[in-house]
Amino acid sequence: MSISFTVQNVEMPNIDRRQIADWVHRVAAHYGKRCGDITYIFCDDERIIEVNRAFLQHDYYTDIITFDYSSERTISGDLFISLDTIATNAELVSEPYERELHRVIIHGVLHLCGINDKGEGEREIMERCENEALAMIAM
To answer: Quick one: which H or E segment has residue 112?
Structure first.
């Protein structure tokens, strides 16, 4: 059971990996889950669109793609995060890059915990859960 961080086509973002791992465990526990193997793959826009096309048949850029391997109460998955899109979105919503990165990091975990954002009213629920989780990290 581990939370790991790797990169594809980018440099590792300046994050405190231990702090992030602890935060992910606390958020999962908040939803009655425990962490299995979770891998964060930080990448660029070109890699994220490759993954989106190959596995989801989507032809667009996105900030995160979550592959969920969870079972019962144990969350596990691979989370591809585009640092290019994070930077663009941070600028668009006038948020600091670090806060937007943290938001996306925990967004994937919330998906693994069973929170969705595609159906009617789900986006607002996800945003509320993101904000609650962001309040849990010591910045």
So the answer is: helix 97-112
